[in-house]
Amino acid sequence: MDGDYTFGEAGGRGLGRNTGPNPSEFVKNATNVRLPKTTRVKNKAPAPVQITAEQIVREAKDFQEEDFRAPKSKITDPEELAEYRLRKRKHYEDLVRRVKWNIGVWVKYAHWEESQKDLQRARSVWERALDVEPRNVSLYLKYAEMEMRNKNVNHARNVWDRAVTLLPRIDQLWYKYIHMEEILGNVAGARNIFERWMQWEPDHNGWTAYIKLELRYNEFQRARELYERYVACHPTVTAWVRYAKFEVKNGERARARKVYERAVELLGQEDDVEELYIMFAKFEEHCSEYERARCIYKYALDSIPKGQAEDLYRTFVAFEKQHGDKGGIENVIVSKRRFQYEDEIRKNPRNYDVWFDYIRLEESYGDKDKVREVYERAIANVPPQHTEKRYWQRYIYLWINYAFYEELEAEDVERTREVYTECLKLVPHKYFSFSKLWLLAAKFELRQKNLVSMRKILGMAIGVAPKEKIFKAYIEIELQLGNIDRCRTLYEKYLEWAPQSCQAWCKFAELEASLDETERVRALYELAISQPVLDMPEILWKAYIDFEMTEGEYENVRQLYERLLERTKHVKVWLSYGQFEQSLAPAQEAEEELDRDKMRERAECGARARKVFERAEKVMKDGGPDAKEERVMVLEAWQQCEQDLDPAKAQAVEKKMPRRVKRKRPMFAEDGQAAGFEEYYDYIFPDETGAAPNLKILEAAYRWKKQKLDDEGGAAETPEDN
């Protein structure tokens, strides 16, 4: 074809003779916009299977490729190095041109130039960065640190000098600058920098750093002059106290006293002067000038408002307890606090926390009559509710503390007994009781060696308000006293009150086992497992089986396992049964040959264990799809058993192991609507492989059969109406 390409009517590209473009056609084609036809949605109901956002994100994560990592390159000649540097510089220049405001890019650029040992270029980068942000503290710090790393001291000085000139309120820059000069041994330079800094009147830390510099070089007179300038710049309690401590540390007590006196004259009317008085008084106390300290405390208490002198008052009390008239000062303290507590009690007489604080105050004072009076007033405020235990939980501790005080502090046995007796009468045991109270009263009588009263109290507790804690404590006491018959009687009462308590049955059996009463132990366990209701039957059966194993009665153990399997088909029972049979096999050490009898015994144990595992596997198999996990557990235990006893037969168990697959199943919300899918792991056993395509049908049939059996059982239990 000799012609040129031309455009057709539809704007497509065709072949033909060039007859010239038609401008009207171009305009027409450009203005005509073809819109897609609207799709009419006929079924607007939600789809039966909804895709959640979580599922979409999870699938996207699964299909996401790993991040690309550039391979490492190795430079071998100068030309490659020059090309590499040119490429990196171009990369960084492009970055700083695009994101000029990003200081991190400038820092990386400068560090890279430093790593190439091109300090001139690195300085250029730092200067360009400072042109962008001239008040960025981090830039100055990193710039100066680079110069210090490369031992360019003068350059570092220039950077620090520019920084502190431009940003004199940034303490970190001053600290770094001074630290560098001190490391270089230029103490005079460091002192000059400090003087420049002090002109800006920094905070307490700046002055303290300057003073510590002078003290490091034993310039005590300079330090004292600095303290004078410090307190003139910052006339605060902190500054004056530091000045005084400096004089005390140098042994100048007279100077320190003058410093404190000047501070009191200057700051005597300030609000936060309490600490100054405390430190002044402690200084005089340290100098053994107790009268001076007492005068300072009294003057301070008269000058400072009472609401702002709590710490001062507390310190004064501690001082008087140590050096003054103890009785007088404590009486003042107790009177003041007693008035506060009385005021709070007047507002709310049943605020037991205030009563506890009030009683603690009186106990610390040591007046027994006053303590008893407060206790009696406190316990007179009985809670209004006699049916709610929560109202009594704080109140009952008033009685307990009262009894402790009479026994330990007052050492009055009769009053202690009366307190316990009255408290036990007051508690409404018909609605609730406190086992702690019964036990404390009984142990008090035990400490007094009054066993009759102790047994009477605990017997009353069991009769009025029996609790597990009381039974255990009573049995423990009698056991320590060696009264076995009483322990048996108590266990009988305990089991009459709580026959469902497996812990009680086990403890009773342990008691009899410790006395070598084997028949009694078996009778107890038989009676226990025959109870219709038990709170933790697995503990009871395990204790019974362990007892028979300890006695060496392996046939009894097997019978117990069989009886237990008649009640439950739990997989843990099967596993324990099989492991028991496996444990009876004689152990075989490495490179040791067993004799014929042991080999025969080992084979018999393996056969018994194998039979147990076969039965367990069959039961779990009949359990349907819901018992697949348990079936896998049985097979794994069986395989381990065969590997330990007869490795040649472990291959047969290996063939029974299932294949683990990942599947999805629909999820439904509480209202029954579909809520997406969830993944779960399923097991496909070798005997199910052929039926895998119809596995869902078989599971549905199994559920239908189970439901039908349940319905028939329910109909059989319901009597027919005649």
Strand numbers in spatial order across the main sheet = 1-2
Structural class by SSE content: mainly alpha
For the biggest sheet, the summary is: 2 strands, antiparallel
Average of per-residue pLDDT values: 81
Q: Pick out the low-confidence regions.
A: 1-19, 715-722
Please state the CA-atom Rg, rounded to the nearest Å: 46 Å
Measured distance between first and last alpha carbons: 104 Å
How would you sum up the global shape? flat
Give the percentage of residues in beta strands.
Answer: under 5%
The count of DSSP E runs of length 2 or more, i.e. the number of strands, is: 4
Number of helix segments? 34
Q: Helix proportion of residues, in percent?
A: 55-70%
Helix-strand layout with pairing:
Layout lengths: L4 E3 L5 E3 L7 H9 L21 H10 L15 H21 L4 H13 L3 H14 L4 H13 L3 H14 L4 H13 L3 H12 L5 H13 L3 H14 L3 H13 L3 H15 L6 H13 L3 H14 L6 H14 L2 H22 L4 H14 L2 H12 L16 H14 L3 H14 L8 H13 L3 H14 L3 H14 L2 H14 L4 H13 L3 H12 L7 H15 L2 H14 L3 H13 L12 H27 L5 H18 L4 H7 L2 E10 L5 E11 L10 H23 L5
Antiparallel strand pairs: 1-2, 3-4
Helix pairs in contact: 4-5, 6-7, 7-8, 8-9, 9-10, 10-11, 11-12, 12-13, 12-14, 13-14, 14-15, 15-16, 16-17, 17-18, 18-19, 19-20, 20-21, 21-22, 22-23, 22-24, 24-25, 26-27, 26-28, 27-28, 28-29, 30-31, 30-32, 31-32, 32-33
